[in-house]
Amino acid sequence: MRLLLVEDNPRLQTLLGETLNAAGYGLDAVGTVQDLHTSAASTKYDLIVVDLGLPDGDGLQAIRKLRSGGLATPILVVTARGSVEERVAGLDAGADDYLTKPFNNSEFLARVRALLRRPTDVIGPLIKIGNTTVNVSNLEVICNGQDVDLRLSERRLLLLLMRRSGNLVPKGVLESSLSEFGRDVSANAVEALVSRARKALTEANSDIQIDTVRGVGYTLKDRSR
Question: H helices within 72-165, ranges in order?
Answer without folding.
Answer: 84-93, 105-117, 152-163
